[in-house]
Amino acid sequence: MTASPIRPITYWDGTPVPWITGWTAETIPPQTLTVHHGRGGTGLGFLEEDSPTDRQHDVLWPRMPATRGGRPDFATVHALRQRQAMSRLLCQMCGGPTLCSRSDERTLFLVGSAGGRPIEEGERTDAPPVHAVCARLAVEHCPPLRRGWAAALVSYTPVWGVAGLLYHPQTLDQLPVADPSGMHHVAFTDGRRLRWTLAVRLLVTLEGVTAVTDLDLLAEEESGALRLSL
Ligand SMILES: [Zn+2]
């Protein structure tokens, strides 16, 4: 018998804590930046770099604990769990795999949308997928989603690039950013800027998008599909 892909969700003071949320004990230790001479040329690196760990998708990521200790900090997203969730299509709420939760192999995505704007074809996102039953829980408890949300079933999720901090090649000063998220979006095709980026989010594009408005119906379909697969 296969284990259910829907994992138990951690609660804090009666509120579900998304799997990708950062916790206060997961502080990033100081990591001195330096110029790194490696595959693909010169770029940003750590003074004591361990490239197989610190570089994923050919870009530098902060090294950080993943202990879920202390208390949840709902305003932060844990860079490592976000990347794992996005690259393996794990549920952002419970951390379980989403691919086997539907018979048609499409994946559910859920984003905050206070203005009611739907998810568009080809849209870029840093929000990993979600099970239907976990999405229902999220829209009930997550304050940004309670102000409005949009959901869609998505056929393909090709990786696009990363969001992160961009550094000046000579001074290693952080370059200013106009985006309110405080992060630069850098495509994997933009090798010149990618070399000077410290990535904190993996971004994908959503292709083959079908809008979803009834999460209850979707959750029923999901439990039906799971019953068949178990
Ligand atoms: Zn889930």
Describe this entry's structure for a reader.
- The chain is of the alpha+beta class.
- It has one domain.
- Helices cover 20% and strands 32% of the residues.
- Strands 10-14-12-13 form a four-stranded antiparallel beta sheet. A three-stranded antiparallel beta sheet has the order 9-11-15.
- The longest helix has 15 residues.
- Zinc ion binds next to loops.
Question: What's a quick, concise take on this entry?
Answer:
This protein is of the alpha+beta class. The chain has 6 helices and 15 strands.
- Number of domain modules: 1
Uncertain regions spanning at least 5 consecutive residues: none
The mean pLDDT is 92
Largest sheet: 4 strands, antiparallel
Percentage of residues in DSSP E strands: 25-35%
The number of distinct helices, counting runs of at least 4 residues, comes to 6
Kindly, what is the distance between the CA atoms of the first and last residues, rounded to a whole number of angstroms? 6 Å
Instruction: Provide the list of bound ligands, each named once.
Output: zinc ion
Strand order of the largest sheet: 10-14-12-13
Helical proportion, percent range: 10-25%
Order of helices and strands: EEEEEHEEEHEEHHEEEHEEH
Question: Structural class, judged by helices and strands?
Answer: alpha+beta
The geometry reads as: globular
Number of strands: 15
> Could you tell me the radius of gyration in angstroms?
19 Å
